[in-house]
Amino acid sequence: MLEDIIVLAHGAGGKENEALIKRLFSKLRLKKINGGIGLDAFDDGAIIPIQNNVVTSIDSYTVDPIFFPGGNIGKLAATGSINDVAVMGADPIAALDSIVVEEGFPITDLKKIINSMIEVFEQENIAVVGGDLKVMPKGKLDKILISTVVIGKLVNKTLYLDSKVKPGDKIIVSGTVGDHGAVITALQMGIEAEIGELISDCQPVTKVMRIVREFKGVHAAKDPTRGGLAMSLNEFASKSNVTIEIDEELIPVRSEVKALSEMLGIDPLILACEGRVVLSVDSEIADEVVKALRKNGYKDASIIGYARDDEDWNGLVLLKTVTGGLRILDKPTGEITPRIC
Amino acid sequence: MLEDIIVLAHGAGGKENEALIKRLFSKLRLKKINGGIGLDAFDDGAIIPIQNNVVTSIDSYTVDPIFFPGGNIGKLAATGSINDVAVMGADPIAALDSIVVEEGFPITDLKKIINSMIEVFEQENIAVVGGDLKVMPKGKLDKILISTVVIGKLVNKTLYLDSKVKPGDKIIVSGTVGDHGAVITALQMGIEAEIGELISDCQPVTKVMRIVREFKGVHAAKDPTRGGLAMSLNEFASKSNVTIEIDEELIPVRSEVKALSEMLGIDPLILACEGRVVLSVDSEIADEVVKALRKNGYKDASIIGYARDDEDWNGLVLLKTVTGGLRILDKPTGEITPRIC
After folding, report:
1. At B188, which helix (H) or strand (E)?
2. What does A43-81 look like in DSSP terms, one character per residue?
3. Cβ of B60 and A131 within 8 Å?
4. With left for phi above 0 and alpha for psi between -120 and 50, is residue A134 left, alpha or beta?
5. Closest approach of chain B CAs to the CA of A145, in angstroms?
6. Are residues B53 and A47, on separate chains, in Cβ contact within 8 Å?
7. Nearest CA to B146 among B189, B179, B102?
8. ∠ CA B326-B332-B338 to the nearest 5 degrees?
9. How far apart are CA A153 and CA A151, in angstroms?
């Protein structure tokens, strides 16, 4: 039926556009922040009452395939931008989304995707205050692309920055690394049979960050998405001008991810996570942070290394391999996986 | 040369991604707001110090063709989101952008596009505090798609809302309508020879809004983009529950736009503008507002009609045609022009 697929008129800014948006967002409950103006006004912009520093991030999500074990592009679009704001030390409070969809796309799939996005935002008590929906003619876009912006307010004025890692800090990861990257890469390579029970780790890290924020002595936090743990640690090392040494044996990697990585010839440390946090914390609190995380269900939270001031290696990440050698873990280079997020 | 086109590695979140972003944004001067954290930090999110209500809007720009008389997709992406925030009554102060580009896209074109975007933001003193850049494999996206978010702060706590039009108000447009829509539609139809000297009206409306904000008695403002003047006036009428009557003879439409519209069989009142404002103002100040606009270079600024409380027609827009008849100017429906913005 014609009405079950996206047509150009759905993106033209007229009657059909408005009707479609109303239909797609019918399940949305939180459409504005108290005292503000939100999605329900269908005005030019949104108003977010905020009396604090605004923390914000934008990302466009192009993941392929759009449905994958553990999530879909809608869940990812909400999660990814929430996480960017959360790891800065902020409480996400509002979001805006912009959806561009290909003519002919099934509206049932679009509803599924948007409902997943809404579900994440509502679970996190984040209002969707504005958005955009456009249609590109058939063949001009591969299915769908979603951009999201999340706006948060700073809590306790504590900012977790890549540049704040201190020599002596311990490096912690909140869970296994590479799950999302392994799943998506395997799907793209057509070896879905090998994925088995493995699912993407796609989930908000707000709970992790709320636990972490209870501690004094947390210096830096990051969600290791594109480029994986390797890229995040390199950001820490180069921006803080410290040497980071991590121990391969201590890094939690699922056996399925290890197996897939070997099959694909990819280092799991460059595979994207979409629900993990890498932390740099004062060594005195490191064990307690890990204990608190494990107690709250993050059973794979682990100390994986430390930072030091070492003139010869500052700005770099060193990996102690399982065989005992030490090698530079460089910033990832090359194609890795296209459309991983 | 390989380095002159976009490759997948440019979007992979690794070394090449970082290097490309640095290269593309080399001309950007305003990378953060004083006391905040911006694009130069390459961190997960941006910090915008703001002690006020946040006004914000997101849009994804898909315009086809990406270069057109009067602008390109970069200029449009900056302008469009600036305008959404400005017409709410706010001062735009910060922006974030997310670029998704097709593998194989020429980097010189990408630089041109980004430089146009940067130029608009810098002319407006808006800092680009964050962004994202992804690459989609060849054939998965038609050239380039840009999403922008602009964040503004409210001035004087005066909000211009679609729902605030009052019976008795005069309706003003700040300039000719339909220029952008006519240019893009003509290009898509392959009749560029007919465009002649006509160019898109793509430009920030911040100056118009600064003039307008000097007046008390301005109730609603809107930039008539997709769906054109017809859609904007319908938003006013339905959200404010008033009858809006406009006079076709008073609406400034360039002769080239009229000619193109006739040729294309499209009503110029549904053609998108990208640099105009529609205002609803107290009748007592209407002449003065128009005078102030004309004095400042907006020589086509005109009163085109008024709002009234008329039980029979409230929620609707009536158009007095040149022949003297009165017809309902409905919300546009159907395809209009795909990828107009």
Report:
1. helix B179-189
2. -SSEEE---S-EEEEEEEE--SSSEETTEEHHHHHHHHH
3. no
4. beta
5. 9
6. yes
7. B102
8. 145
9. 7
Taking CB atoms and an 8 Å cutoff, what residues of chain B touch A7? Answer: 335
Q: Which residues contact A332 (CB under 8 A, 6 or more apart)?
A: A227, A228, A230, A231, A270, B12, B13, B14, B15
A41 neighbourhood in chain B, CB within 8 Å: 161-163, 239
Torsion of CA A263, A331, B98, B136, to 10 degrees: -30
ipTM of the modeled complex: 0.94
Give the C-alpha separation, B117 to B74, whole Å.
4
Each residue's pLDDT tens digit, A59-93: 999 999 999 999 999 999 999 999 999 999 999 99
The 8-class DSSP code of residue B169 comes to P
Q: Is the pTM of this model over 0.80?
A: yes
DSSP letter, residue B80? H
At A305, list the tokens. 């290394």
Q: Could you tell me the pLDDT band of residue A52, with boundaries at 50, 70 and 90?
A: confident
Chain A residues whose beta carbon lies within 8 Å of the beta carbon of residue B12: 226-227, 332, 334-338, 340
Q: What distance, in Å, lies between the first and last C-alpha atoms of chain A?
A: 31
DSSP for residue A235: H
Q: A45 and B231 in contact by Cβ < 8 A?
A: no
The answer to whether the Cβ–Cβ distance between A55 and B45 falls below 8 Å is yes
What are the tens digits of pLDDT across the range B261-296?
Answer: 999 899 999 999 999 999 999 999 999 999 999 999
Rounded CA-CA distance A36/A47 in Å is: 5
Helices B73-86 and B107-123 sit at what angle, rounded to 10 degrees? 30
- In angstroms, the CA A171 to CA A114 distance is 36
Nearest to B47 among A7, A53, A147 (CB): A53
B153: closest chain A residue by CA: A47
Residues of A in contact with B333 (CB under 8 A): 9, 14-16
CB contact under 8 A, A227 and B49: no
Residue B251 identity (one-letter amino acid):
I
User: Residue B289 has which token pair?
Assistant: 């507002």
From the list B243, B221, B245, the residue with the least C-alpha distance to B293 is: B221
Could you give the CA distance from residue A159 to residue A91 in angstroms, rounded to a whole number?
11
Residues 6+ apart with CB under 8 A from A107: A3, A4, A5, A6, A20
CB A277 within 8 A of CB A205: yes
Q: What six digits make up the tokens of A218?
A: 């947390």
Nearest CA to A280 out of A331, A312, A239 is that of A239
pLDDT exceeds 60 at position A1: no
